[in-house]
From TrEMBL:
The lineage of its organism: Bacteria, Bacillati, Bacillota, Clostridia, Lachnospirales. This is Tfp pilus assembly protein PilN. The keyword Membrane applies. The chain crosses the membrane at residues 24-43. Keywords: Membrane, Transmembrane, Transmembrane helix.
């Protein structure tokens, strides 16, 4: 094994001689490369940090502006409406495909109702129809009964009861009817 004298460079009087094969030279080159790479990474990290800080400041200014707040509220409303529309479409598809009562039959029955009548209860067993509606006055109750008779789906329609609501804001009407044979199928 060869004995290396690391101080040989300093002992010679003829100047510095570098031996590229010496372990000292190789170690110095490796250390110099590591230092240069480390400095490059530190500078790159510093530049990226400055860019991130400036972008964060701009984002904070943007988020506090009225236009951004209004646009964000609008976007949230649009997202909620889109989600509602998807849910409504899914429900409609399930309802139509199941055809529990017959969506066309229900549409035809509800066409005969006045616009200010609210259906609270609806039951159709065989040909027997039971319906409870909330109406504002007796005239609307009469229109409800007449409208159901005019749909030509009903064999008979009877107004069972008319009760005044507890808060005196309208009436609760119970209607019983019998569909014509074959209409519920």
């Amino acid at each position: 094994m060869r004995d290396y004298n690391f101080f040989e460079v300093f002992e010679s009087k003829k100047g510095v001689k570098l031996n590229p094969r010496s372990p000292f030279f190789i170690a110095a080159v490796i250390i110099a490369v590591c230092v240069v790479l480390s400095l490059g990474l530190v500078v790159r990290n510093w530049i990226l940090t400055k860019n991130i800080d400036s972008a964060t400041e701009e984002l904070a200014k943007t988020k506090t502006s009225q236009e951004y707040i209004l646009a964000n509220e609008l976007q949230n409303s649009m997202d909620a409406m889109t989600e509602y529309e998807k849910s409504a479409d899914t429900t409609l598809e399930k309802f139509t495909s199941a055809d529990i009562i017959g969506s066309q039959l229900m549409t035809d029955i509800f066409k005969g109702l006045p616009s200010n009548a609210v259906v609270i209860f609806f039951n159709l067993e065989g040909l027997d129809l039971k319906m409870t509606c909330d109406v504002p006055n007796r005239e609307t109750a009469a229109e409800l009964l007449l409208g159901l008779k005019q749909t030509e789906l009903m064999q008979t329609v009877k107004l069972d009861t008319i009760e005044t609501k507890q808060d005196n804001t309208g009436l609760v009407v119970r209607v019983y009817g019998v569909l014509k044979a074959g209409e519920a199928e």
